[in-house]
Amino acid sequence: MAPVEVANAGAGPGGSGAPGGGAGRSVPGGAGPSGANLGGAVSGGAVSGGADPRGAAPGNAVPPLRRAAAALTGDTWPGFLARRTGRLLASLAVVVTASFAMIHLIPGDPVRAALGISADPAQVAARRHDLGLDRPLLEQYGDFLTNLLHGRFGDSIVSQMPVSQIISDRLPSTLQLVIPAVVLILLVGIPIGMLAAVLTRDGRRRRGELAFAATTGVLAALPEFLLAVGLVAVFAVWWQVFPVAGQSDLSSYVLPVLSLTVVPAASLARVVRVEALRVLTEDYMRTARAKRLPARLVYLRHALPNLLTSSLTIGGLLFTSLLAGTVLVENVFAWPGLGSTIVQAITTKDYPLVQGVVLVYGAAALLITFAVDVAVAAIDPRSTIRGT
Can you tell me the distance from the alpha carbon of 228 to that of 257, in angstroms, rounded to the nearest whole number? Predict the structure, then answer.
């Protein structure tokens, strides 16, 4: 078999091939299949192990739709926000549909139930026409969505006032309880949990650990309704330090805010303690203590940021349950907020008003969950939440 001359892939100092300047080398057995295709393989770039993607032809580029799909399914910020926003919108659609179906799933005629059994049939028919309940179901649903997009929730059956106006009048009173309660939950739960972890780490102060676990366990298990009744009995009836009910001066805020704060703060303190005990055993914490850094820097700069991720997730659940707590607490203290409004609407069978308040509470819970997910992804870059 005649040898096949194969040119060297790169020119050496000699000018045409190998470093010695030779023209090439002989490959025996060039008549075989591998020898016949060797020249084409060398010229095609197979010797380097494959084609360079940077030198690929424009026809082999990734299509824009595939790039967009990869971005949406990856762990990048645009993809994460797009997925979370899509889930938020889908959940809002479920809440809207459920609130619309509420008035149609009630046994009997909701208008007749609201106006009373002895109401005039002509009045019932006129009210059903005003509410649009005499039209086809799909048409009612379309009008319901259109009104929602324009901020209209319909009119109350009992007071004949627009539901949006009732909500806008009562929502500030609820926020005046919720916002201070959230601030107190964070200011009380996180420091107490961290302090308990620092004092009881490595098995120290067993009695203190037992006292903390027992106290926070009992407080976290208390229903807000029962706690509110107990606070009224002690501080308003027996000691007469604070008013029993109503919204008046600053003292009227104390008992309702405490009723909303105690249970979530105790639950958050327990979670923070568990997470702080885990963080305090990490290598970087031992290194920080070995460097004799001040305790303020060790716990605030190194420990606190690393325990916020899981604590924030649990805190989001607690804040969502806080919305349900306002319904009970506002009724105990006769507070003119959304919680007492929805109870009165259910009692009087004012279903359009119930629909509007349910939508506000549902949207608030979904927005809190969305905000917590975004905050967790921003605080902890190692979190896997951006890939979900």
Answer: 10
**Nearest-angstrom CA–CA distance, 275 and 307:** 6
Instruction: Please give the structure tokens belonging to residue 191.
Output: 């420091």
Question: Which residues on neighbouring strands pair with residue 162, listed in sequence order?
Answer: 155
User: Exposed/middle/buried for 78, CB within 10 Å: 0-12, 13-18, 19+?
Assistant: exposed
Burial class (CB in 10 A: 0-12, 13-18, 19+), 321: middle
Residue 100's nearest CA partner among 358, 386, 319 is 358
pTM higher than 0.70 for the full model? yes
Place of tokens 């349950």: 321
DSSP H or E stretch at residue 4: strand 4-6
pLDDT digits 0-9 by tens, 60-95: 555 555 554 554 455 577 888 888 899 999 999 999
Query: Which tokens is 30 given?
Result: 């060039």
- Rg of the chain (C-alpha set): 34
